[in-house]
Design a protein that fits this description.
The complex is a heterodimer of chains A (about 300) and B (about 600). With about 300 residues, chain A is an alpha/beta fold. Chain A is built from eleven helices and ten strands. In chain A, the strands form two sheets. Chain A has an eight-stranded mixed beta sheet, with helices on both faces. Helices cover about 35% and strands about 20% of the residues of chain B. The chains are: A alpha/beta (about 300), B alpha/beta (about 600). Thiamine diphosphate binds next to helix 4 and strand 5 of chain A.
Chain lengths: ~300, ~600
């Protein structure tokens, strides 16, 4: 998403955790989503975006309750459609900072097509997918990221369908910023928020966020406390050292796909980042050209001229 | 109106007769690539410019290239109410055009045909034949390869000569239309047009036709456009600057216009990946503080229904255009039907009151767009505009709207809100605070969950009851503010015809004819379908019979969709249905037949009311 622009005058109010705290979260104790929220507060405290310009939007799911818990302008929309809703906000209000939250079902299943198109159009916003490999709100059905063999209420003998690989899907969709994080790593999440926010265009972060109720231990393999390994992507420093050879170049799409192909639990960090004109900029260019053609006429004059041709 | 002459040979030297016409129905039949819509468009525009009333009728084949296509234009000097039941003149480009449409030509009507392609049965004495080697003469005039494209201009010239149309104005219109397409295109168009005009049509037919002109009554300038254009420009006048859609016939041309027009006004129209995204994007813009629009045709409206429910619950203003076509499913995508009424009023889930209005003609499309935006903003509610395929593609002339008065400049209300900010006060209208507005207390999360006055989610039964009532009552408030429709024709008597949408013209013409037979007949046309205006009972009870005329099926219980609603609302047995499902606009004759059939049936011909 975009950087805070000079044309948005700060409101003067300091963003503190207290100011940012909304309703008390309704999540189950221990749910990974608490940490995703805490990291978001911390990120906002660091960035100090004008309060009234922050918009948090979501679809439906446990994770999609997020906007209630943040005291900013918010929208709790319908299942799977938060992205096209956010597109309407972003494209019609370039002064706002739009953050969208949701789950794996919301984003990859019912909203999967919207994700592809919002990504390819590079609409300026930040999308955070809280992936718990399960449908939490509806109480344990198979999700598009549930691994084969996962026993859910819709697959009591174990999931049989091939899950999607979120990183590959996001890369293939044409997203210009793709990152991955883990709810047990608050510092890492804050850093991913920061990078995503400062990226101009569509930025998406998948955060593995454990559903303690219906899929406990799903992400232990990446939790050092639980004998797992949290492997961060080392990005190229372009310092000419031999170690740098092995480091990841986030602008290298093929390399990003190779990272996405690593065995579970894979690696965390920025897989891919590239610069491409955003839809917001492209539409603005169209508008500028159209405005030049009507040469500073008022709306009334433009329409009157159109009607004159229909006489 | 045309006297007999079956010859197709020029008779030189014969004295030309002038025949004065009050109105004429001209049907052009060819293939879609022949550009016959263009001829129709020119005639319509010419008629608009010369203050003749005009109404057109066109069908587009659903196959994109090739395939038969017709355009019917009715030009008159008085009020033209329908596209005409049968044609006075038929222009046939091909044998198949002749065969499919000869039945639409009235007896003693004139068949104009391309004698290079069409061989009519000259022994059929019902018609007057006028063969012209249209293809050959166009090739001669234009030469080269563009020739097939010039046939429409040739025919336009031919008609200009026959009808003594204002050739200078037509040439000017051609210039305006083709100037941007390059010099050679314009030159060829004019060459073909001049060749058509030079053809001695009058000497062949021994007569020429002349539209009797009435005085320019109030001198108001007329503009000419189709219903979709009127809707699109109405939305712009109404201050709509953002929207989103997905293409589907016959809605598409609205989104095409908005896509290229809105940037001039600093707005944006987004082509989305599907209809669900389209309404969502439009709702996003509305949430962000704009008056926004989405639209579609039947199947697409169905896809928008879940999101519509959110808009009702969150009380977000939105305009949804639905251009009805024959359904269900892909149905008859290029035909007309009024079968989305119940979907528009009741579609979606839960108790989800929204506003539904329907334009009655092309001019009505413009004003419905303006009204829809006003209602959406004032009542914070989604408003569906139900137009249809025939209005969408039909060209009519109407007095140029007074933009000075009507034009709305959109404003974003980003004023700070105090700590007591309530988007849904129980005692007042809904007022959202769009993002960007500072809030001195808690910031709102606009939600599809049931909520209290502050917008906080709540599943409290009392709150759900209160808020359900609130969403209902605001529409009742709107109903109370609507003007009671007036009855056209007799104010009481035998039959009241009730219609909605594009059936306005044919119903009105039917009423005129019935009254000419000394029947006591009136016509009420409903623009506001949900909520209905108050006081209709006072209109309905003045007539022994109330026949609701609509283009949809009579359903399992014998009533069309509006009739079903009206019977549910008023429970009058006098309310009955005249319906049809052939996918074509109503012919006046069909309405008259319906009235006769129902009038003859005495089952429910009684009045509940002693004063009759
Ligand atoms: C149209 C529609 N279909 C289904 C549902 C029911 N539903 C609500 S949330 C959900 C899935 C939630 O899973 P996910 O998006 O992964 O979120 P989580 O609860 O796991 O955070 C479903 C199926 C709905 N609300 N709307
Ligand atoms: S059900 Fe799972 S995802 Fe939902 S709140 Fe509880 S732990 Fe979190
Ligand atoms: Mg989930």
């Amino acid at each position: 998403m975009s950087t805070a622009t000079a044309d948005t005058p700060p409101s003067g109010e300091k963003l503190t955790r207290k100011v940012l705290t909304g309703d008390h979260p309704t999540w189950c104790p221990g749910c990974g989503d608490f940490a995703v929220l805490a990291a978001f507060y911390r990120f906002l405290e660091q960035e100090q975006i004008p309060h009234e310009k922050i918009v948090t939007l979501a679809g439906i799911g446990c994770s999609s309750r997020f906007p209630y818990f943040v005291n900013t302008h918010g929208g709790h929309y319908i299942h799977g459609r938060s992205l096209p809703f956010a597109v309407g906000v972003s494209l019609s209000r370039d002064d706002l900072h739009v953050f969208v939250f949701g789950g794996d079902g919301d984003g990859f299943s019912i909203g999967g097509n919207h994700l592809d198109h919002t990504a390819r159009k590079n609409v300026n916003l930040t999308y955070v997918i809280m992936d718990n490999f399960v449908y939490g709100l509806t109480k344990k059905q198979t999700s598009p990221t549930s691994p084969i063999g996962f026993k859910s209420k819709t697959d009591p003998t174990g999931a049989i369908d091939q899950p999607i690989n979120p990183m590959k899907k996001l890369l293939a969709s044409g997203a210009t910023f793709v990152a991955r994080s883990h709810a047990a790593q608050v510092k890492h999440m804050v850093e991913m928020y920061r990078r995503a926010y400062h990226h101009k265009g569509f930025s998406v972060v998948e955060i593995l966020s454990e559903c303690v109720e219906f899929y406990p231990g799903a992400f232990d393999a990446a939790v050092p406390r639980k004998q797992g390994q949290f492997i961060e992507i080392e990005e190229k420093k372009h310092d000419g050292t031999p170690e740098d050879e092995k480091r990841h170049d986030p602008s290298d799409e093929e390399a990003a796909f190779r990272l996405a192909h690593l065995e579970w639990p894979g690696v965390f960090g920025v897989f891919y980042e590239t610069q491409r004109l955003t839809k917001n900029e492209l539409e603005a260019q169209l508008n500028q050209r159209a405005r030049e053609r009507v040469k500073g006429k008022s709306d009334l004059e433009i329409l009157r001229d159109t009607f004159a041709k229909m006489r | 109106m045309v006297s007999s002459d079956r010859s197709s040979q020029p008779i030189s030297g014969a004295a030309l007769q002038k025949e004065v016409l009050k109105d004429a129905v001209i049907r052009l039949a060819g293939n879609s690539q022949d550009g016959i819509q263009t001829i129709g468009g020119f005639l319509a525009r010419l008629a608009g410019r010369t203050a003749q009333e005009v109404m057109t009728y066109m069908t587009i084949p659903s196959t994109i290239s090739g395939g038969p296509s017709i355009f019917q234009v009715r030009m008159g000097t008085g009020e033209v109410l329908s596209a005409g039941d049968s044609a006075d003149f038929l222009v046939a480009f091909y044998q198949h055009s002749l065969e499919s449409h000869i039945d639409s030509l009235r007896e003693r009507g004139v068949l104009i045909y391309d004698s290079d392609h069409v061989k009519p049965d000259l022994s059929d004495k019902r018609f007057i034949y006028f063969g012209v080697p249209i293809t050959g003469l166009t090739i001669e005039a234009v030469g080269g390869s563009a020739r097939e494209k010039g046939k429409n201009m040739f025919v336009l010239g031919l008609l200009a000569r026959m009808f003594n149309l204002q050739i200078d104005k037509l040439r000017q219109l051609i210039q305006e239309r083709f100037a941007s397409k390059g010099e050679s295109v314009l030159r060829n168009a004019l060459l073909a047009f001049d060749a058509g005009f030079a053809y001695p049509a009058d000497s062949v037919l021994k007569r020429y036709y002349y539209f009797e002109k009435e005085k320019d009554e109030d001198g108001r300038v007329q503009i000419t456009m189709d219903g979709n254009q009127a809707l699109a420009y109405g939305l712009i006048a109404a201050g709509v600057r953002y929207g989103a859609g997905y293409p589907i016939t016959p809605w598409t041309s609205i989104m095409e216009i908005l896509r290229s027009e809105l940037p001039k006004y600093g707005g944006t129209f987004v082509q989305c990946e599907d209809e669900l995204a389209a309404i969502s994007t439009a709702l996003g813009a509305a949430y962000a503080g704009h008056t926004a629009v989405t639209g579609s045709s039947g199947p697409g409206l169905s896809l928008k229904m879940e999101a519509l429910g959110w808009a009702v619950m969150a009380e977000i203003p939105l305009i949804i255009v639905n251009i009805q076509r024959g359904g269900p499913s892909t149905g008859m995508p290029t035909n007309v039907e009024q079968s989305d009424l119940l979907q528009a009023i009741y579609g979606s889930h839960g108790d989800a009151p929204r506003v539904v209005i329907a334009p009655e003609n092309v001019e009505g499309c413009f004003y419905c767009a303006i009204e829809a935006a006003r209602i959406a903003r004032e009542f914070s509610v989604p408003v569906i505009i139900l137009s249809d395929q025939s209005l969408a593609t039909r060209i009519e002339a109407f007095p140029e709207p007074d933009l000075e008065k009507l034009m709305i400049t959109p404003q974003l209300d980003l004023a700070p809100r105090g700590a007591d900010f309530k988007p849904y006060p129980l005692d007042g209208p809904t007022r959202h605070a769009p993002p960007g507005a500072r809030i001195d207390g808690k910031y709102p999360t606009v939600t599809g969950l049931e909520h209290d006055e502050h917008g906080h989610p709540s599943a409290n039964p009392a709150i759900h009851m209160r808020m359900t009532a609130r969403r209902r009552e605001k529409l009742k408030k709107l109903a109370a503010s609507l003007p009671r429709p007036e009855i056209y024709g007799d104010q009481e008597g035998d039959v009241l015809l009730v219609g909605w949408g594009s059936t306005w013209g044919p119903i009105r013409e039917a009423v005129r004819r019935l009254r000419a037979e000394d029947k006591l007949v009136g016509h009420v046309h409903l623009r506001h379908l949900h909520p209905l205006p108050n006081g209709l009972e006072r209109l309905f009870t003045r007539f022994r019979q109330v026949f609701v005329v609509e283009m949809n099926d009579e359903g399992l219980y014998g009533f069309g969709q509006l009739a079903t609603l009206l019977r549910g609302r008023y429970a009058y047995q006098s309310i009955r249905s005249i319906t049809k499902t052939d996918g074509l606009p109503y012919k006046v004759r069909e309405i008259l037949e319906g009235v006769r059939r129902l009038s003859a049936d005495h089952v429910s011909t009684f009045s509940l009311y002693p004063n009759l």
